[in-house]
Amino acid sequence: MAEPAGDFPIAPATGRRIAGLALPALGVLAAEPIYLLFDLAVVGRLGAISLAGLAIGGLILSTLSSQMTFLSYGTTARSARFFGAGDRETAVGEGVQATWLAVGLGTLIVVIVQAAAVPLVSALSAGGGIADAALPWVRIAIFGVPAILISAAGNGWMRGVQDTARPLRYVVTGFAVSAVLCPVLVYGWLGMPRLELAGSAVANLVGQWLAALMFCRALLVERVPLRVQPTVLRAQVVMGRDLLLRTLAFQACFVSAGAVAARFGAAAVAAHQVVLQLWSFLALVLDSLAIAAQSLVGAALGAGELAHARSVAWRVTIFSAVASAVLAGVFALGASVFPGVFTDDRSVLAAIGVPWWFMVAQLPVAGIVFALDGVLLGAGDAKFMRNATLISALVGFLPLIWLSLIFGWGLLGIWTGLSTFMVLRLVFVGWRAFSGRWLVAGTA
């Protein structure tokens, strides 16, 4: 059996140790959005139709892959407990089973999307030239889904054994290769054929499979059994079901918010989208600390060190609260300057003030919520997280979104709904954290 790399799993959760896990995790989280911006810039020079085709294809691919985040978060929770108990082989074995699950689910998704690609693309793009552009991209890019899911599983078990450096290298290598290939294949540089939008899909595919193969090689190096274990797979699917329902609640809320914002005009939906994208980026920054909490808390519980798990939880929460307060201060001070970076349209700038100040006010709340999310996910408390998110969405976010449409509250109502959603989640996860019910020792 391979020896554990790095520090002993239950070493003190110092600021350096937390940062050592969180910063590489942030790099992994940020790599894809950064690459997607580059991809948009390359394809954007082909014209509006190609750019719209990429938007439709990217929406399909990102929606499908985002529903499978349980392969990383759920695997981290289970793997970290075994790692904390000193059983690295079983911890890595969770990654083996998650990888088999990724291959199975990924293959199923490829088959379904290939069969339904024409009506799916047509429904999203209303047919015409955009559908014609998007369809070839989707048919090529969808073969990358198994690779995306294998990488998610790889991230999961490596975070569980407190190794966030190798995943960063693998993911950055994959995206770097895609970034080199993208303009070469899109524009036909260096004697390559000019594939235009299809070239973007091929570049994505190559980079995704390169990263996936690196994660697979990491499993082989561990010299753990590679056979399928149905009992472990079932346990992962149960946790995955809860996390999937939680993710669907988020999707329903944000899709509804965008749809309602669009009913209030172009300026409203543009302002909403700018602030929401910024909010999503800041969420990634804070989520890196939540990933550190997952790994450290899971290991502590696996080792039976309940007091240490509680200490880690509060330490990471304090760090996240401070980081979010600093971010809130930065964006409050920059409220008169930063929006101009994203647009010079006066109507959008006039509308952006409402969501902007809601975002600033929410950041300190979000810092605590995301950290405690990581704590509870690290404890494997997926059922509670599912229920808390569903209730917060159904009671707080969705009613205010649709009431905003009925009564004409506009962005004020929509972002009040998002704020209510965050406050309700704070109440739920705060209560759960204080209750100590998540402090369950062992590897089960």
Global geometry = globular
Ranges where pLDDT stays below 50 over 5 or more residues in a row are 1-7
Radius of gyration: 22 Å
Main sheet makeup: none
Tally of individual helices = 15
Give the mean pLDDT. 87
What is the number of strand segments?
Answer: 0
Quote the distance from N terminus to C terminus. Answer: 21 Å
| Content of β-strand | under 5%
SSE string, helices as H and strands as E: HHHHHHHHHHHHHHH
The assigned structural class equals: mainly alpha
The portion of residues assigned to helices is: over 70%
Walk me through this protein's architecture.
The chain has 444 residues and is mostly helical. The protein has 15 helices and no strands. The radius of gyration is 22 Å and the shape is globular. 48% of the residues are buried.
Topology:
Elements: H1 15-44, H2 48-66, H3 70-84, H4 88-125, H5 128-141, H6 145-160, H7 165-187, H8 197-221, H9 230-262, H10 266-302, H11 306-333, H12 339-342, H13 346-378, H14 382-407, H15 410-435
Helix pairs in contact: 1-7, 1-10, 2-4, 2-5, 3-4, 3-6, 3-9, 3-10, 4-5, 4-6, 5-8, 6-8, 7-8, 9-10, 9-14, 10-11, 10-13, 11-13, 13-15, 14-15
